[in-house]
Design goal:
single chain; about 325 residues; alpha+beta; Rossmann fold; Tumour Suppressor Smad4; 2 domains; 6-stranded antiparallel sheet; 15 strands; about 35% strand
């Protein structure tokens, strides 16, 4: 019998990378046809639209959702794999065709950034379970909220950097946008006091520069913040950059890009399935960075959903 080819819904954010993604669509469609994949193109036209399209893929019995865009678009699609009560929700396999300003998650799964390589993995790649994190948080209006993440959630300077990057032009490239955003955020940020527990045990208390709750390994446009993270091991890696001064952070930054910062002064490392964090001062506003988006602030409770998504990679 002939091979059954997967039906693919291609969710694309045309405005990703300052509109450059829209210009890559002809190349993406040529690759899909070259590999003989039946597909439907589904462009997003507003914030949250990717979530609706992903739910629609389930109803249309698609085999694969291919996400074209950056980490923000991927995060939106990931929301469709979690029910309203926070439990895992089965859905089509998930694939990534990198084209966005970020692209940190694709590094964890070993994608080079080549469109041909990404499409070939939809046709011939292996299926691998991928964990999801679910955050109970305080949204930007001060109300309780919930958001899942497939890559990394962080708090501290990361939330401020996201706000800067998302408000900045991307025409000069994603890595440059994150680098400049990180520089501006580092200069403006003041270390915030927090209390963190991992699996019910005290983990850290005091001022922090940034804390990463990591499923994937990279964030911030290529920083290898969690070199030991595994997207299918059922636990988060937790990396706290403590009460470090700006000169110390700048000295540490090159090691973070290489993943060589673990064990350095001011870096605390742990792992677990449940991470809770709150500000030491109720009036403090400690912003979140969730896969490059800024959905709210502390307090949070992050819990693991093991194998919630099946990746084609």
């Amino acid at each position: 019998m002939p091979e059954a080819l997967p039906k693919v819904l291609v969710i694309v954010n045309p405005s990703s990378q300052g509109g450059a993604t829209a210009r890559k669509l002809p190349e993406i469609e040529r690759a899909l046809r070259r590999y003989g994949l039946p597909y439907t193109l589904a462009p997003t036209d507003r914030q949250g639209h990717a979530i609706e399209l992903a739910h629609g893929a389930r109803e249309r019995e698609c085999d694969v959702i291919a996400v074209v865009g950056g980490d923000g678009t991927l995060n939106e699609v990931a929301q469709a794999y979690v029910a309203a009560d926070g439990s895992a929700l089965a859905g089509p396999d998930l694939a990534v065709i990198p084209c966005g300003s970020g692209g940190d998650f694709r590094k964890t799964i070993g994608l080079s950034g080549s469109i041909d390589e990404a499409v070939s993995r939809i046709r011939y790649g292996q299926r691998k379970p991928c964990d999801l994190g679910v955050l109970e948080l305080q949204d930007n209006d001060g109300k309780p909220g919930r958001r899942c993440f497939i890559n990394i959630a962080s708090f501290g300077v990361g939330g401020l950097v996201d706000r800067i990057v998302n408000e900045s032009p991307k025409w000069f490239g994603g890595k440059a946008a994150f680098f400049l955003g990180s520089l501006r955020g580092t200069l403006a940020y003041k270390n915030a006091g927090v209390r963190i527990r991992v699996d019910g045990a005290d983990f850290y208390e005091g001022p922090i520069f940034n804390v990463a709750i990591a499923n994937g390994r990279y964030f911030g446009g290529g920083m290898k913040i969690a070199p030991q993270a595994d997207i299918s091991d059922g636990r988060f890696e937790v990396i706290a950059l403590g009460d470090l001064g700006k000169l110390e952070i700048f000295a540490l930054s090159s090691k973070i890009y290489d993943g060589a910062h673990l064990g350095e002064h001011g870096v605390t490392v742990g792992a677990g399935k449940v991470v809770e964090a709150e500000p030491l001062h109720p009036w403090a506003s400690v912003l979140l960075d969730v896969d490059g988006e800024t959905p709210g602030k502390l307090p949070i409770r992050a819990t693991m959903r093991e194998g919630a998504v099946m990746l084609r990679c």
